[in-house]
Amino acid sequence: MFKRGNKYLIYHIIGSIAFLVLPLFLSPRPPEEIGFISRPTIRDFIGNFLMLFVFYLNYYLLIPVFYFKKKYIVYTFIVLTAFLLICLLPSLLTGYVPWGEHRQEMYVMPPAHGNWMPPHPMGGSFPEQIRHHVFLFMIVILASVLLRIRDRWFQAETARYNDELSHLKAQINPHFLFNTLNSIYSLALAKDDSAPDAIVELSDLMRYIIKDVDKDRVPLEKELKYINNYIALQQSRLGRTVKIVYEANVQAADKMIAPLIMISFIENAFKYGVNPDKISEIIIRLQLKENILSLYVANKKVAIAGVDGEGIGLENTMRRLQLLYPSRHQLHIEDTASDFSVQLSMHLT
Fold first, then answer.
1. DSSP 167
2. DSSP element (H, E) containing 107
3. pLDDT given at position 176
4. Does residue 21 register a pLDDT over 80?
5. Domain 164-347 falls in which CATH fold?
6. pLDDT digit string, tens, across residues 301-311
7. DSSP E strand boundaries for the chain
8. pTM for this one?
9. Cβ neighbourhood burial of 18 (10 Å; 0-12, 13-18, 19+)
């Protein structure tokens, strides 16, 4: 319950203090008692303290150990025992026996200013003590159970989310390796002099994929270096058959980003926007303004044969954006008969 940040710890401290001081304002004040704190106030303070203890005991121990493991009889017995202790212990500690004989001579105020105040019984019978505590006790138990169930659901969703991200990454890594090796293969077939440089660039790409891609976040500077190497590798492979307009206005500083979150859009432009029979043009623009990173990619469509793994990169990237930046990204894709463009904006941390 406290693992999600200090903010929740502060909330619980404030709530606990407020719950403990409630008796100062809500407890009955018998007319025979003098002073700000009466015996019923002390009794209710002890009762609230015990209820607070039962709340956290139930949340951290009873629910995980007994309730979630379907040991309902043991769980019910412990909860009822705790309720009886809350009903009895505060009264016993303040000098009152709930099941004893209640005589009215317990507190008698002496005459004052000619007025005599009749005796007033302090406390009540045992059934009255139960009625006094039962409603608040039920709220305490129900609240702790609902919070625990909510946290269990949250943990299950987090585990499912992490599994899905791992599955997406497992698909993306071979996908990029396959396409990059195709690029190197093309250079080798053409006996291009840039093949050695392309191999160095490939080694940088693979080092990034092997060492950093499994992390939740990587420095933006590393992600940009990966993109630069990928574009350089494609330029070496395609040569003069493609005009690449690449503009990067990014001061990475200490910004972090999810790995490989942009490269699918860039790779898609090279895969489907290059015509070997005439000069093609691919436009790639990156800009970082404050915490907003913008990516624009545009290309003309060309008629090509089907490509292995078609659609995997874009689909996975869009799904990862929904998981990693659910309310912190905007994606606009324009897909016409002749043109394809992507405008992506992300709020980085």
1. H
2. none
3. 59
4. yes
5. Heat Shock Protein 90 (3.30.565)
6. 886 555 544 55
7. 218-219, 242-249, 256-257, 280-289, 292-300, 329-335, 339-347
8. 0.54
9. exposed
